[in-house]
Every structure is written in structure tokens, then in C-alpha cells.
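Run log, item B.
One chain of 299 residues. Sequence copied directly from the ordering sheet:
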Amino acid sequence: MNTLFANGQIPVDKDSVKIVRHQLELRHDNDFLTFTDRYYSSGLFLTYRQLLKKGILSSGKEQLQFSVGQEIYTPSDIKSRDIADLDRPYVGFLGIQAGWSHIKNSNLLEADLLFGVAGPASGASGFQKWYHHTFVVSDPPVWGNQMENSVHANIYVSYLKEWRLSPNPFSVHMSIKPQFAFGTRDIYVYPEFMATFGRRDPLSSSMTQNRLGTMDREIFFSLMAGHRFVHHNALLEGKIWGDDSVLVVEADRNVWYFGFDFKHRFGKNNYWAGYRINSPESQRTQAHKYIILSYARSF
């Protein structure tokens, strides 16, 4: 281990004080590991993050994020072509997202812009059929009565406030994070509460909110709960101005979300495993759960 001795001070790991300003993350969501194959069936995301040396509001406290991702949504009965058997439409979404965030003390402000396409143009049906043939070795979903193509733009704004209740080596933090979404894909208000337990950095450089800066070791878990007040969900209800798809369903206006995360940062490597469950998103659907697996490399 590289150490630095100065004036009799305790040795310091050089890597722990090195600033990292870039990160590349690959994330995969899938409900297959929960032994289901329905609703939010899978998601694949590639994300690049950069810590700005000189930002709009202050230096060293702002981050940019760029992401490309594909999401796949299917009904619970993926073998039937009868529309009467489907509790939600088949639909995929392919999008690009650009985000900006600013942190000050224990406060975090984020804003994201999302542009994408839903429907056959997303490539979701072809990708899922290939995935099933290659990895699952089972008959893929039939993708009948798929939602029509549509183009979407959305803005997401969130504000997080965090409180530290106890310090390391086993710290406890509590936070509240209201989020607002407006656009053609999503319109909702979503307050979320989170508690984290374990060894972690302050909010400004912790991977709990995907912050860059140090490579200090972190290992902690989080519990979260939130309630989404939904005005429109285009991946269930179709285009907000009217949709000619064969099947659309009305979204429930109140949806509960719960989650568990385990996160570990070791040097430039970030590991994340998560579990999510939500209440039914429409009248005919059931509760749903899925797993998050992510690896990120800082540089």
C-alpha cells in the first residue's frame, strides 16, 4: 500500500485522496431472478458521469450525467395472443437522458431531460426474443397487441435533504427526496424516504446518490419507501393526447414503491445490488418485484 508520512502524521492512503471525475456504469434490471416475467420485465442502461471542475453555480460540486437505456414491459400472460387475457399492453422504450446535479452540504438538486421512442421502434420485442432464445432457453413472449410507436420528451426534477444520525464506522443517515416529472411519458409527484446504514462518505462524494470525487471505501445498505401520485403513464395509457393502440389501460393514480440496496465501493470499482417492489400500477395488474445489478468504473 502506498503511504505518505509527514511530520509524524498517521499514514494516509494516496488512493483515498485522489480525485476521480469520470465514471462509466452498466446496469441491468430484471425480474427473471425473482421468478417472474411480467410488467417491467427488464432494463439495460449505459451511463457516463462527470464531476465538473468549474460548474454553473460552484466549482467541484456539480455533475453531468448521460445515459442510454432500453426498457421492456410485458403483460403477465406472455403466451396468449387474446387481448382479453392481457392485463397491460406490450411496450418497449428506448431513450437517451441528460442530467445535471448540484450539491451543497447535505442538499442535492437534480434535473434530467429524457428523449425517446416507445413501441416497435424501441427494438424491445426483437431484443427480448433474442434474449430468451440465447440465455433463458424458453419460448419468448408473443408480443401481440403491442402499443403503437410514439415519441416522448420528459423533464425530471428532484431535491434531496439528508441528515446524519450517527458517524462512521457504522453510520446512519436519513433522507427525503421529492421528485417531479412532467412531459409526454410521465407526469407524477413522487416523495421518497431513505435510510442508509454502514460505512459511507458524506453525501457530496458518496455512491448512495452516484456522486464522484474520492475513492474512499464504502460498504452500506439502504432501505427506501415512496408513494407516487400519477397523473399520466404513457407506457400504460398511451399518448396523452389520444392513442389508437389496440390495447391501453388506465394507470392507478397512487402507487407505492419499496426497495433495498447494497452498495460497495472498492478503489475505482462500484458495485450495486438492489431489490424493488411496487404495488399494482393499474386495476388489472398485480404487485411487481425485480432485481438491480450494476457495476461502475471510475477514472
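Observations after the first pass:
- Residues 124-136 form the longest helix (13 residues).
- Residues 170 and 198 are 4 Å apart (CA to CA).
Flagged for discussion on Thursday.
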